[in-house]
Amino acid sequence: MHLDELRSILLSERETGRLIQIPKDLFPSTGKGLEKLLTDLHSCEDPFSDEARVLIERVTAIRETMADLYRIRAEKILSLARTQDGGHYVDREELKKMLPEEREMFNQ
Question: Is the pTM of this model over 0.70?
Answer without folding.
Answer: yes
